[in-house]
Every structure is written in structure tokens, then in C-alpha cells.
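Good morning C.,

I know you're traveling, so I'll keep this short. The sequence:
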Amino acid sequence: RAARRGFFARRLQRALLTRLARISVRDPESQAALVRLGADPARIEVGGILSEPPEPLHCSETERASIASITRTRPVWLAAAVPAGEVHAVLTAHAQAQRHAHRMLLILAPDQPVDGTELVNELEAMGWAAGRRTLEGEPDDEMQIFLADDPGEYGLWYRIAPVTYMGGTLSGAAGHARSPLEPAALGSAVVHGPQTAPYGADYSRLDAARAARAIYDPRSLGDALADLIA
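The C-alpha cells, ready to paste straight into the viewer:
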């Protein structure tokens, strides 16, 4: 409608637009429309849709400090909301990343309630030194995998792990997918596969801002872990 106004109205619009030092628009179409109205293209940026930032997940500061003191000399990563079909891929990536950082600790959080004893036994049968939150409480120096089997503690693990892989994004099989804004809000770098539903828009925003790393298979996941931890 603004473009159809009379000459003097358009001239006033142009004068007003030139007084703006910076304009943020939601998409390239909005950018082009403002340029046609007389805005300086150099002052316009495409910022996407404004949305309410997520409330950072809470945790016990006492527990965070205790676990952080235990893991402070170890590289740590979190595999969040991992479906059963991706556990093998996560373990493959962990083994690959350990070649670059042999003391690396994986915090493994399943996306469905699991029998923690059974899963830890399976991991140990594969040769991993494993423990679980609901039994040992905290990882020790010998553990290579720590099973985070309490789904209410993501706020703790996002704070402990500087890198988080978003489970289900390799296979698209997540039963309880989690938003990538959760770890991002707490300073954990986001790694994800190509299957980003139902949070595709959030992943696109993070990717565009270089705030997330896209991977496509277990090998590229291992490479990303080694790179980001380094």
C-alpha cells in the first residue's frame, strides 16, 4: 500500500527511512519492499522472525559445581534424547572422537525411559566403562559413558557438556525430540543431523548464525565432536 501513495507521501517515507541507522526485517521479500520505498540497502539486515527466547532449564547449582569439578580436566559431550536406533551411531562417533581425546566422556540421555541396569550391562559387554546417574550419582575418572537416565535433568547436562548432539536428527526417529534452543540458551554447542522436525525453523536460524553444526552420519558426527572439543 505504501508504494501506491502519492509522490509527496512517498518522498516523506523516503526521508523518514533515511533517518534509520539500522533496519531488521523478517525475510528477503520485506528487504526488497523497503528498498523500493527508499531505504538504504546497506542499513537493512534479514533477521528472521522475532520469537520469545526459551526459559533456560534449571538445575541444582550444588550438583552442577560438584560434577563440573569431577569433569573439569576431561572433554565432555552430551547426546540428548537419543532413540534406541541411534545408540550405535552415537557409540561409533564417541569411539572415533576418543582417538583425538582419549579421556572423552559421553553423557548419554535416552529419549525414552529405559532399564538403566540392562543398558549399562550392554555397554560394558561392548567394552565400555559405563555408569548411570540413578545408581552412581556422578561419573568417576574411569567412566567413558555416563547414562543420564533421569529426563528431568537436561538443565544440568547442558551446563556440564560444551557440545550437545540432538538425538533423533540423524534418523528422524526421536520419540521426544528436544528443541535445539535448550542447549544453545545454556552455552552448549549444537550438533545435529538432517532430520530436524519439528524444530526445523529453530535449526535453520542457528545454522544461519553459525551457532550449530550440521552432520550427516556417525563419521561426520565423530569429526564434528573432535573439532569442536579441540
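Safe travels,
E.
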